[in-house]
């Protein structure tokens, strides 16, 4: 089958130098939230770049506020699956071709990554599409239920949530264990909370941001710590599984 979705973009106020990020595409259920940063995660961003497994390449055009992006997946291309995108009704060409044997029958799920942006989805619930789409494509919401695949369900209640706290000296291997444990238990969908995990996600074009902070390591640590504190506050309100991987800093109570 050929499936489709539409995404409308709107910017939110921000005082950051590069405040707005939108990346849309498709990922396996087992992938992290960082679209385009690992295998089987395929994104197209507002800078006019496509990315998978942290490899960024030029694709299509830049897009921004009030643009509408259609995400298309064609499963009727023989032994390959083709992913392409449209901007305001204009087809931008095939972005990815993936052999079906590589997917191994696993489903691709719509995926969006945003920063300081509001987005509106159209999975087929609107009476009219934002823009016309190529013939033969079906909106996800219009697919028969029997042809859909449910994503992994999270804990139903706070009582079912699991929290693991790593304990040990610095460089003892806590982060390595946490990453391996999360990978070995994909159904748990662990969220690893720690400054190491945050800084690993602080990338620009797939490269670690730390390179841009030479001589200002304290600034990076401060930003990551503030982010971690906020994430812990949010985590307390969510029904998810967590691994707390954070070393107590010297001098802290």
From TrEMBL:
Pfam families: AAA_33, SPRY. It comes from the Eukaryota. Keywords: Nucleus. One of its GO terms (molecular function) is RNA binding. Transmembrane segments: none annotated. The keyword Nucleus applies. PROSITE patterns: B302_SPRY. This is HNRL1 protein. One of its GO terms (biological process) is alternative mRNA splicing, via spliceosome.
